[in-house]
């Protein structure tokens, strides 16, 4: 009996080790040499990873008030309006800001539309273009690691979350930040009378089932782990995104898991959200993928194949 249990455990360890990429250092993370280019607002383009000596902007002191990270995959029809609305808001707040759009292997004109919108609005917008689709989690990670804002927000390219929700999140971040660390998560699941939340009943039902399961597995009080509207302090982004492993839909859950393990203050604020047609989420396929990734996070950190010290920013020791 004991041998059987040991064999099963050994099989599970090997299975999860083989079918995941347990990045143990920054160098191993980029050892795949992904073909990624940074395209500046003026059109200048250069490889993001030119050699083994990688300098990430997130490891340097913040030089702007704010960074907006926008992961995008085939979003040429939706990203222009989203960028217009967000840029207008940032200009009204007189922020010194940057916008980083990560084109995650799009086959349409997402990059061109984003760059043209930045020129039209005369703002500091750049595009990180990946030649292959790696997933939303990977896109957000790459964007965050190349940001220079004191606050870093990632927002979905469809513009489903109204940027006016940012004000309350900003205030909440200021309240909870301790020693430069803080994360605020937007939530569509708060029953607050003045919050707009319009989505199909089926998606709402699926979301609540997922939230219930995640709450049981990870003992978190966060009501909406998957909302594409999350705000980080510069230091929190350093700590979290150097560690993050998951590259697709469930990466949000790993972010919350890391926050809890590293005792990074995290809070939740209701946001105005409306479902926008044209989403890429495949209910059946992506739910199966998310279920697998949820198990990966729980098991791989538990058996220490993934660790909170897998990646370390020079000059900043990760804490257990």
Please sum up the structure shown.
This protein has 320 residues and is of the alpha/beta class.
Global mean pLDDT:
81
CATH topology: the name is Spore Coat Polysaccharide Biosynthesis Protein SpsA, Chain A
Count of individual beta strands: 11
Instruction: Note the overall shape.
Output: globular
Largest sheet at a glance?
A: 9 strands, mixed
Q: Determine Rg (CA atoms, Å).
A: 19 Å
Instruction: Determine and state the CATH class.
Output: Alpha Beta
- CATH-defined architecture: Alpha-Beta Complex
InterPro entries: DPG_synthase (IPR035518), Glyco_trans_2-like (IPR001173), Nucleotide-diphossugar_trans (IPR029044)
Catalytic activity: a di-trans,poly-cis-dolichyl phosphate + UDP-alpha-D-glucose = a di-trans,poly-cis-dolichyl beta-D-glucosyl phosphate + UDP
Membrane topology: Single-pass membrane protein
Domain Glycosyltransferase 2-like: 67-237
Verbal overview:
There is one protein chain. The chain is an alpha/beta fold. The protein has a single domain, classed as Spore Coat Polysaccharide Biosynthesis Protein SpsA, Chain A. The protein is built from 10 helices and 11 strands. The strands form 2 sheets. The chain has a 9-stranded mixed sheet with strand order 2-1-5-4-3-6-9-7-10, with helices on both faces. Strands 8-11 form a two-stranded parallel sheet. Helix 3 links the parallel strand 3 and strand 4. The relative contact order is 0.15.
């Amino acid at each position: 009996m004991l041998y059987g249990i040991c064999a099963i455990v050994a099989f599970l360890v090997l299975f999860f080790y083989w079918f995941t990429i347990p990045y143990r250092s920054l160098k191993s993370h980029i050892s795949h040499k992904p073909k990624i280019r940074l395209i500046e607002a003026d059109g200048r383009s250069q490889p993001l990873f030119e050699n083994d000596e990688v300098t990430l902007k997130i490891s340097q002191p913040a030089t702007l008030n704010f960074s907006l990270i926008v992961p995008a995959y085939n979003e040429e029809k939706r990203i222009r309006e989203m960028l217009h609305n967000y840029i207008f808001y940032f200009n009204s707040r007189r922020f010194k800001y940057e916008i980083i759009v990560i084109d995650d292997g799009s086959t349409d004109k997402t990059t061109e539309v984003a760059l043209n919108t930045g020129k039209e609005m005369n703002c500091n917008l750049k595009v990180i273009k990946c030649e292959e689709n790696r997933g939303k989690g990977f896109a957000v990670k790459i964007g965050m690691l190349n940001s220079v804002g004191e606050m870093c927000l990632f927002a979905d390219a469809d513009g489903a979350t109204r940027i006016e929700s940012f004000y309350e999140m900003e205030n909440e971040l200021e309240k909870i930040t301790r020693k430069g660390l803080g994360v605020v998560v937007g939530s569509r699941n708060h029953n607050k009378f003045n919050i707009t939340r319009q989505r199909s009943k089926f998606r709402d039902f699926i979301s609540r089932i997922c939230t219930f399961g995640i709450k049981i597995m990870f003992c978190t009080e966060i009501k909406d782990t998957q909302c594409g509207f999350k705000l980080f302090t510069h230091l929190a982004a350093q700590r979290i995104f150097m560690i993050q492993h998951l590259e697709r839909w469930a990466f949000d859950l790993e972010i919350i898991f890391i926050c809890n393990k590293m005792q990074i203050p995290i809070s939740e604020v209701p946001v105005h959200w409306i479902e926008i047609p044209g989403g890429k989420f495949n209910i059946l396929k992506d739910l199966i993928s998310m279920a697998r990734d949820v198990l990966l996070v729980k098991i791989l950190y538990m058996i220490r194949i993934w660790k909170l010290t897998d990646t370390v920013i020079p000059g900043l020791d990760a804490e257990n």
